[in-house]
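agent> fetching stored inputs for the fe (ii) ion docking request
agent> found them:
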Amino acid sequence: MRGAEPIVLGIESTAHTFGVGIATTRHILANVNSVYEPKAGGIHPREAAEHHSKVASEVLIHALREAGLSIRDVDAIAVALGPGMGPCLRVGATLARYLAVKYSKPLVPVNHAVAHVEIAKLTTGFRDPLVVYIAGGNTIITTLVEGRYRVFGETLDIPLGNCMDTFAREVGLGYPGTPRVEEKAMGAKSYIELPYVVKGQDLQFSGLLTKALRLVREGARLEDVCYSLIETAYSMLVEVAERALVHTGKREVTLTGGVARSRLLCRKLEAMAKLHEAVFKPVDPEYAGDNGAMIAYTGALAYASGVTMSVEESAVRPMWRLDQVEIPWSRTAKLLRNS
Ligand code: FE2
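agent> prediction call returned; pasting tokens
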């Protein structure tokens, strides 16, 4: 314990990153991550899991050293059980169970998407924002309503980050896709109409990706296609986020996940928020991509609210949705604010 605050070690291994963080309910004490880079193509779950197993002990030792702590100083072990890729998730879960049993520490389940939201709240100082969560594996607009993060829009097919990564890879721009496509778009001369697919509050990006790739194959200027792709995808997203903001009446807007590093998307969301007299701030870029610190921090919030699980309950949950998770610490925070 640090004062009255529990110290929690958190393990991230849902996709390409193996990370270990250490945090209290107020501070990040360590954040050490190792990212698997595929030799070619997208993430291969087995290869990523192999990478995670290889680096796990080194990352763990490095994180403890960074925090100046021994494993015995830690009050609980948190782990991201999902959503994510089964083989990758199992590496983190196995390490968490081993540490919990060997050192008699409680285990805390963390939903990876909830962790992206919570780290954005910590680093922006926002209390109750509308959250736009965009990454290689997710595209979700969410906010807290009565103790849960409710979904006010999501992708019905591929995530936005995945759309950009696939496009960039196919046209030879490399990885990660979003910054490369944005950079190329700077040289555009004209906009080419692409499929703009918003269904109610939900989005579809695969038609947009197919058409953009076809245009490049047919000889359209790559700069123009990049510009059209970025503008269309971001406009779809901002339209849905704007409706969610007006509907929920929130006063703060944040952007989290790997794509939160996009200055262009930040500018668009900021302009939209301003129109509705809301404040916009993205997550700290250090914590935009997947990382161990966000799992440790969310684990600390959960543990302080009494959330734990037994080893038997710690099976991985590859399809675990954000809106299935109870957020008991939101009620505590509300009580504290009102007292
Ligand atoms: Fe993520």
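agent> quick read of the result: The pocket of fe (ii) ion is lined by residues 112, 116, 135, 137, 257, 290 (CB under 6 Å).
agent> awaiting further instructions
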